[in-house]
């Protein structure tokens, strides 16, 4: 159903090349300032529901807990521009939370009020 509704969204890849800005607070985190996407998110507990959220991609590299467990060295996440909310990508996720981004499409910019634009 989602692939029909969001036929021009990317369901397979992650925008790794957009993640180039080192995080000042956490080593190994690369952000993507100004690279805003409309993301389709699904909660594993409620697979009949979805929500769309504006998010920016980020990567985490060589996290100690991942190296110890033999996980991939680059993991994928999404965050709000304010940093108040972070979500996992559906592959190579960082936190293994219930809600994950399953599709995304780049926006021309962040929309501060979706009701007016």
Please tell me about this protein's structure:
By secondary structure, the chain is mostly beta strands. It is built from 2 helices and 7 strands; from the N terminus they run H-E-E-E-E-H-E-E-E. The protein has one domain. A hairpin with a 7-residue loop joins strand 3 and strand 4. It is globular and about 40 Å long. The mean pLDDT is 90.
Share of residues in helices: under 10%
Radius of gyration, whole Å: 14 Å
Total of DSSP H or I helical runs spanning 4+ residues: 2
List the secondary-structure elements in sequence, H or E: HEEEEHEEE
**Estimated structural class:** mainly beta
Low-confidence stretches: none
- Give the assembly state of these chains: single chain
Main beta-sheet strand count, sense and barrel state = 5 strands, mixed, barrel
Order of adjacent strands in the largest pleated sheet: 3-4-5-6-7
Number of domains: 1
Mean pLDDT: 90
